[in-house]
Design a protein that fits this description.
The structure is a single chain. The chain is mainly beta. It has one domain (2-240): Glutaredoxin, CATH 3.40.30. 15% of the residues lie in helices and 40% in strands. The chain has helices at residues 47-56, 84-96, 120-131; strands at residues 2-5, 33-39, 62-68, 101-104, 106-109, 113-116, 137-143, 148-155, 164-178, 188-204, 210-215, 222-228, 234-240. The longest helix has 13 residues, at 84-96. It holds the Pfam family DUF1223. InterPro entries: DUF1223 (IPR010634), Thioredoxin-like_sf (IPR036249).
Length: 241
């Protein structure tokens, strides 16, 4: 595990703007458990966590996402998927949780708990725990024939309050990289569900139903996440392949 002192800023992250993906879905269940892996091609401790994420990505009840950070680029290898926005998101999680440092590989499960990404049993236990969380939001996601995404959400538990962020994520299912420098020099790595865009569709007060549309072009899969501000707990998620 590699660590880095955080100069984190609190608050919700609004990253880039993305578009693209597949299918149509809807309903009132909570959806898959979201697992975010903060990783780097330049981190020698990360390959086992990358392999674990690939395993988790095969599970229907899990939305596994790899967010490659950029803060290890200085040690000899620039991560081809590294994005400072991912580093900012990881710092925001640290700040929201009262932690003063960030590290790789780190997994955040359902926006609520963090765990070292090389502890598979702990990760699986958290996934199992969150899989039985009650459905609090009815989230419907539909892709139209014109490359448009329609999203609607309403609260199914009247006790739910506060503000939430409705976010659209685009990701690449798989990419293979030959690493020639740095701590993983000489290795050829295959990465899974690499986040390419994480954008804010809108902020929702969870008092009135939420309705919005977004462009969805291209072949990459997409996901919709409703998450408490902070960033905090993920309340609902849908995947569009």
């Amino acid at each position: 595990m590699r660590g880095l002192k955080a100069w984190a800023t609190a608050g919700a992250l609004i990253l880039g703007l993305g578009a693209s993906a597949a299918a149509a879905q809807g309903d009132a269940d909570r959806g898959p458990v979201v697992v975010e892996l903060f990783t780097s091609q330049g981190c020698s401790s990360c390959p086992p966590a990358d392999a674990l994420l690939a395993e988790l990505a095969k599970r229907e009840g899990v939305l596994a996402l790899a967010l490659h950070v950029d803060y290890w680029d200085y040690i000899g290898w620039k991560d081809s998927f590294g994005d400072p926005a991912h580093t900012r998101r990881q710092k925001a999680y640290a700040s929201a949780g009262g932690r003063r440092s960030i590290y790789t590989p780190q997994m955040i499960v359902q926006g609520a708990q963090h765990v070292v990404g090389t502890q598979p049993q702990n990760v699986r236990d958290l996934i199992t725990s969150h899989a039985s969380d009650p459905a609090l939001i009815a989230l419907r996601v539909e892709r139209t024939g014109g490359g448009e995404l329609r999203i609607s959400a309403r609260v199914s538990d009247p006790s739910l309050n506060g503000a939430a962020l409705v976010q659209v994520i685009r990701y690449e299912p798989s990419e293979t990289v030959k690493i020639t420098k740095g701590e993983n020099a000489g290795r050829t790595m295959t990465y899974t569900n690499i986040v390419t865009n994480w954008s804010l569709l809108g902020e929702w007060d969870m008092k009135q139903p939420f309705n919005a549309t977004a462009e969805l072009k291209g072949a990459r899969p997409a996901a919709i996440i409703v998450q408490r501000k902070g960033p905090g707990e993920i309340l609902a998620a849908r995947r569009l392949r």
